[in-house]
Each structure stands twice: as C-alpha cells, then as structure tokens.
Design goal:
Shape: rod-shaped
Number of helices: 9
Distance between the termini: 72 Å
Largest sheet: 5 strands, mixed
Number of strands: 5
Structural class: alpha+beta
Bound molecules: adenosine-5'-triphosphate, magnesium ion
Low-confidence stretches: 430-459
CATH architecture of the largest domain: Up-down Bundle
Helix content: over 70%
Mean pLDDT: 85
Radius of gyration: 64 Å
Strand content: 5-15%
CATH topology of the largest domain: Four Helix Bundle (Hemerythrin (Met), subunit A)
Length: about 450
C-alpha cells in the first residue's frame, strides 16, 4: 500500500513537471514572437526610411513614425518579458534596436531638411543593423535552446508519468489479485473452522447425550433401589420386629395374669409401664413401616392413600386444604401410583417447610389421554431461576415425571405461591397394573395401616 501511494505521488509529480515544462515552452514561444515582431518593425522602419529617401513622399515619413512608435512599445514588452533570464542580452538588444531607430530617425530628419543621405550614413546604418541582427540571432538561439530543453523536459515528464501510471496499474492489479486470493484463503479458513466447530459440537452433543442417559439411568436405578430397600425394610420391620414386639406384649399380658395377687400390686406399676412401652414401640414401628411402604397405597389405591395423606396434612398444619379427587380409583400401574403419591408427599413437605401458605389445593383428573395432578399453594413462592435451588426434592419430582414420559410444570415467583402440575400419559410406565386388593392387606397389631408423618419422606 505504501508502495502504491509512493508511485501515485511520483506519477503526479512527474506529470506536474511535464506540465510546468510545457507552460515554460509556451512562455518562451511568446517571447520569441515579441522578438520577431521587433525585427519586422525595424525592417519596416528601415524600408520606410529608404522609400522616403528615394521618393521624398511624406507618407513614408508618417509610416516610419508609426513603426518607430510600435518599436518603442515592443521594446517595452520585451523589457518586461526578460526581467530575470537573459537580462544582459535583452539590455544589449534594446540598446542596439534603439541605436538603429535613432540612426533611421536622424536619416528621416536629414531628408526632411532636403539633405541627401551620404555613404557614411548608409554604412553606419548597415553596421547598426548588423549589430542588432547579431544580438537578435543570439537571443533567438538561446530562446530556441530553452524551448528545446522545455520540450524535452515536458516529454520526459509525461513519459515518466506514463511509466509510473503503467506501474501503478500493474501494482494495483497485483494488489487486487492478492486481496482476492487473501479473501478466498480467509473464506476457506473460516469454512474449515466452521467444519471443525460443527464436528466438535456434534462430539460434545453426543457426549452430553451419553452422559445424560447414564445419569438418568443411574437416577432411575437409585430411585428404584431406594423404593425396593424401603419395601424390604418395611417387610422386615413388620414381620420380624412386629412379631417380636407382639410376642413381648402377649408375654407381659400373660405374666400379669399369672402373677399371684399379693405380688401383682408390687409390680403393677412397672408392668403397666412395660405394656405402655411395648404399645409405643408397636405404634412407632407401624408409623415407620407406613412411611417406608405406604400401605394404603398398595391396599386401597392412590385416591384413598392421597385422601389419608391430605387428612394427615390438615391435622398437622393450620392450613385449609381443598381436595378435588375422583370418586373411583383409576387403573394405574404400581409405579405410576407410587410416583404420584411421592410427588404429592414431596410437595406437602415443601409447603410445610417453606411456603407459609394459608390455602392449599390438590386436584387429580383422569382424562382419556392420561392423568393430571396439581398441587397449589398461596405461600411465599420462590425464584425458579435461583441457583440455590439445586436440591433433591424438585429434582426427584422431575425425574419421576421424566421416567414415565410425562410433563412437569412448576409455576411460581416470589410472593406468588407455587403450582406444581404433572401430567402422565395413560399408558405411563410400570409393568403391573395396580390391583386394589383389600384382602391382601397385611393386618398389623395396632389396627389399620394409616399414613403418618414421614420421617424419611423425600425432602
Ligand atoms: N411450596 C414452596 N414454597 C416456597 N418455596 C418452595 C416451595 N417448594 C420449594 N421451594 C423452594 O425450592 C427449593 C427447592 O426445593 P426442593 O424440594 O428441591 O429442595 P429442599 O426441600 O430445599 O431440599 P430436599 O427436598 O432435597 O430436602 C427449596 O429450598 C425452597 O426454597
Ligand atoms: Mg423438598
């Protein structure tokens, strides 16, 4: 680029130099014209003087005077023309022209007075004319040399400018070709980078899909294992611990009955405390068992289990709870029933922990395409985008919904309550359709299996 600018400046300067030389040539030509005019006028003056001498006709005298005046004017112009260059030559020329004019004037006056022009006058005139002509020739030659020099300069200036212009054009062309090549290269590079980025993106997406799948499988596995362990623990507690506690209570009853009346008063207080402790143990065992395995859910179905859960929630809190549940049990798989039950359990736990709500409503609708459940509170709500929310309760709900291929919608904002809406498809997961088997119900000491406060509920 700097080279291009340099060439452009050089080309401009060379063209300017050519133009200047041309201008100078014009000026020199003008000056030469003035010199030629002086020459002609002097010749005219000389001819007029000769004519006057031969004919004595006053018209020649008048013509001489006119020429003499023009000569003076032309001398002034020539004097102006050469103020600096050729100044000594000009002064000399003017001096010689003036001498010639003066000589001719004197001749004219002699004729006027009736005198004949002698040889001496003619010789002096010839000398004056020769001297003038020599000076004129010298000046014309110099002017011609100057002109030639100017023309050469002008031609060389234009020639150089032409070369510069050609070079400039070639350089511009090369630059253009270079720019196009560079642009092409950049485009190729950009395309290559885009391809690489696309490939990398695809790889990352594959990785993320793979990891997500792995994590989802792990979460599903953990949820299932947790539920299976809870079930196992509930059975163990019911079968083993329940049997032990019941046997201990029966033994305590037997001892009380068999004791002689005199010793009975002695141990009555301790025996009553023992029986109380055993009843407390049995109740506690029943509560834990129910939390681990919501017996109502398995025995009487989801709707009954939810009603019991809602009743228990009502008792625990000073919150008005509205329930809109269907009258009949929908036909659902065990897995779906358990998931819906756990979702409501988690939502209640959260309301209890954070919401400070006055009203809660639970609705469940069965449609031809699926089952929709929503739990809504009018509490403090929360900011869904807050990074602090990476907890397990809502994540667990999300995962359960995802596992069954359903939809989850959490609608909340600070001071705007929370509405959790879950829709599961009608044929959602689970191999076993829930069978409401009242006869299957495991009867435990202490009465019907109810739902109690959760000690290890999710959340
Ligand atoms: N009904 C609600 N009202 C107000 N805030 C809620 C409600 N439900 C959830 N939150 C907010 O959302 C957060 C995340 O709830 P989530 O159940 O996932 O976790 P957690 O209850 O804090 O912990 P975890 O359930 O793992 O024991 C809560 O910490 C709470 O700030
Ligand atoms: Mg929670």
């Amino acid at each position: 680029m700097a080279l291009l600018i340099g060439m452009l400046v050089a080309s401009y300067m060379q063209a300017s130099a050519g133009l200047d030389a041309l201008k100078q040539f014009g000026i020199s030509s003008l000056h030469a014209g003035h010199l030629d005019r002086l020459n002609l006028l002097l010749l005219d003056a000389q001819s007029a003087t000769r004519g006057y001498a031969l004919t004595e006709d006053p018209a020649y005298r008048t013509s001489f005077q006119a020429s003499a005046k023009k000569i003076q004017d032309t001398i002034l112009v020539i004097n102006q023309d050469h103020q600096t260059e050729q100044r000594p030559n000009t002064i000399e020329l003017i001096k010689k022209a003036q001498a010639l004019v003066t000589h001719l004037e004197r001749g004219n006056r002699m004729i006027e007075r009736g005198m004949a022009l002698d040889k001496a006058w003619i010789d002096r005139g010839t000398m004056a004319m020769d001297a003038y002509k020599m000076q004129h020739t010298t000046m014309r030659a110099e002017l011609l040399t100057d002109n030639l020099k100017n023309v050469r300069q002008s031609v060389s200036g234009f020639e150089n400018a032409r070369i510069s212009t050609v070079l400039l054009s070639i350089a511009s062309l090369m630059l253009l070709v270079l720019a196009i090549a560079q642009k092409q290269k950049k485009q190729e590079l950009r395309e290559e980078i885009n391809h690489m980025l696309e490939a990398e993106n695809e790889r990352l997406e594959r990785d993320v899909r793979h990891r997500t799948e792995e994590l989802t499988n792990l979460a599903t596995y953990l949820t299932e294992v947790r539920e299976a362990e809870k079930l196992h623990l509930a059975r163990e507690m019911h079968d083993e611990l329940g049997a032990l506690l019941t046997a201990a209570k029966l033994d305590a009853d037997w001892i009380e009955r068999k004791l002689p009346p005199e010793s009975r008063t002695l141990v009555a207080q301790r025996l009553a405390r023992l029986r109380q402790s055993l009843i407390g143990g049995i109740t506690l065992k029943r509560r834990i068992t129910n939390d681990l395995r919501p017996a109502l859910l398995y025995d009487l179905g989801l709707i009954n289990a939810l009603r019991a859960l809602i009743d228990e929630f009502r008792q625990g809190e000073e919150i008005e709870v509205k329930a809109d549940l269907p009258e009949t049990e929908p036909e659902l798989s065990e897995a779906v029933s358990l998931s819906l039950f756990r979702i409501v359990q988690e939502a209640f736990t959260n309301i209890r922990k954070y919401a400070r709500a006055h009203h809660v409503s639970v609705t469940l609708h069965v449609t031809s395409t699926g089952i929709e459940i929503s739990i809504e509170d009018d509490g403090v709500g929360f900011d869904l985008d807050s990074p602090k929310l990476a907890r397990h309760g809502l994540a667990g709900i999300k995962h359960r919904v995802f596992t069954h291929g359903g939809e989850l919608d959490i609608d909340t904002a600070p001071d705007a309550g929370v509405k959790i809406r879950v829709v599961l498809p009608a044929d959602a997961g689970g191999e076993t359709r829930h069978q409401h088997r009242a006869g299957d119900r495991r009867q435990e000491p202490g009465g019907a299996a109810g739902l109690n406060r959760a000690s290890d509920r999710p959340g």
